[in-house]
Amino acid sequence: MSVLWTADEAQAATGGRLAGPTDWTARGVSIDTRTLRRGDLFVALKDVRDGHDFVAQALEKGAAAALVTHRPEGVSEDAPLLVVDEVLSGLDALGRRARARTGAKVVAVTGSVGKTSTKEMLRQVLGGQGRTHAAEASYNNHWGVPLTLARMPADTDFAVIEIGMNHPGEIAPLARMAQPDVAIVTTVAAAHLAAFDGIEGIAHEKAAIFEGLKPGGTAIFKGDLETSPILEAAALAAGAAVRTFGETAACHHRVTDIRIGDRHTVSEGRVWRAPVLYKVGAPGRHFAVNAMAVLATAQVLGLDQATALGDLGRWTPPAGRGLREVVALDLVDSRATLELIDDAYNANPTSMEAALEVLAAARTVDDVGRVARGRRIAYLGDMGELGAGEAEAHAGLAESRHMKRIDTVHCVGPLMRNLYDALPAERRGRWTETAAEMEQTLRRDLDAGDVVLIKASKYMGLPRLVDAIKKLGQGASVPDA
């Protein structure tokens, strides 16, 4: 890997002081010694733990230098350090400098649902047409955005920056740091309502991403929401060109037909008046609609559409975001499998509805297990940060139009007790307070031929159910036919 930062460049960007050797070069930037690679600049952020406690370990593992406020105890006098007044501010400065020195076209993405999957679609599509840099995982907060920028090579052609929020006032400063050429709002939905007065407040916060747009930039947002006028007003106030996407004729870029299959979603639509047929490598209406925002971005950036469509068709969601996996229950009988839909990373009413639609459309297999008929089974955990209406929001899932095609719903968490009580008896599975309790009886719930959805807010810990299902029987995955 080429040099990302020289000592002099990092010192000039941060205004810090070099201590120890001053001729080091960094090939990356790290905040975690567990994933640090030799040649990284280690940034000693303070979060749950103080990063200064790990500087010595980082240097032992081969870090090029460390960004610190002081020489930590146990670190030698000749250790390469970049000393600043405040580490997070130093990281911010690196991020701003990295943005300033590149000629990359930058796309910023926010939204109540679909930020990460849209970011990954953009990575796939832009990556087919130039050197592309994008955030790892969901690095979308006050340290994730500057870290993503600080890791961006100067010769990048395209960059994708994910921007999230939990409270008012978080998005605008991160957007101004990223200075996007294109800013996308995937949707506005009831997420983090506990911190806002209502859905309109969330819309205003999401719309703040347009404040960071470079002059002549483009705002892309869902055009068929009740809150779309709020997004449009903010985009116009920022001087942006406006492009809308969605499923109605009022949108510049619209999906006209969606066909959800077992492994893909095939859609038809219009990209700036031109007809288009496209595919994404995952079932889900929400994926198809957000893919239209990606195609709109490609059109705005002047990319080759045929190449973009081909690359989009090869995209699949990451773990925890709707990834589907076939799990073998018997190494001898190749038919004895179940299908797992891992959507355990996050949840709110909108994304929960989308996941239930995917499960309802899934194809089960009969006569391959002890139960004659394959079943659609959901393990649903609490949705966090919904505010005063959280009980009603959970109970309301029982009224989803997709529930009638789901055989059994197991509920995890105190809030999901509201759904459990609202479900008809024939669909009501088990309720437990925690994922650990649910895991204890998981084996008897499932059988070959079933399709299983795991969905909850991350803090509920339902990834442990994902891991437990993968370990059922022989625990071996078989190739996807």
UniProtKB/TrEMBL annotation:
Residues 27-79 form the Mur ligase N-terminal catalytic domain. InterPro entries: Mur-like_cat_sf (IPR036565), Mur_ligase_C (IPR004101), Mur_ligase_C_dom_sf (IPR036615), Mur_ligase_cen (IPR013221), Mur_ligase_N (IPR000713), MurCDEF_CellWall_CoF430Synth (IPR051046), MurE/MurF_N (IPR035911), UDP-N-AcMur_synth (IPR005863). It catalyses: D-alanyl-D-alanine + UDP-N-acetyl-alpha-D-muramoyl-L-alanyl-gamma-D-glutamyl-meso-2,6-diaminopimelate + ATP = UDP-N-acetyl-alpha-D-muramoyl-L-alanyl-gamma-D-glutamyl-meso-2,6-diaminopimeloyl-D-alanyl-D-alanine + ADP + phosphate + H(+). Residues 331-457 form the Mur ligase C-terminal domain. It is found in: Cytoplasm. Residues 109-298 form the Mur ligase central domain. Its main location: cytoplasm. Gene3D superfamilies: Mur ligase, C-terminal domain, Mur-like, catalytic domain, MurE/MurF, N-terminal domain. Transmembrane segments: none annotated. Keywords: ATP-binding, Cell cycle, Cell division, Cell shape, Cell wall biogenesis/degradation, Cytoplasm, Ligase, Nucleotide-binding, Peptidoglycan synthesis. Coiled coil: none annotated. Pfam families: Mur_ligase, Mur_ligase_C, Mur_ligase_M. The keyword Nucleotide-binding applies. GO terms for cellular component: cytoplasm. It is an enzyme of class 6 (ligase). The keyword Nucleotide-binding applies. Pathway: Cell wall biogenesis; peptidoglycan biosynthesis. ATP binds at G111, S112, V113, G114, K115, T116, S117. Its EC number is 6.3.2.10. NCBIfam families: murF. Belongs to the MurCDEF family. MurF subfamily. Involved in cell wall formation. Catalyzes the final step in the synthesis of UDP-N-acetylmuramoyl-pentapeptide, the precursor of murein. PANTHER family: UDP-N-ACETYLMURAMOYL-TRIPEPTIDE--D-ALANYL-D-ALANINE LIGASE (PTHR43024:SF1). This is UDP-N-acetylmuramoyl-tripeptide--D-alanyl-D-alanine ligase.
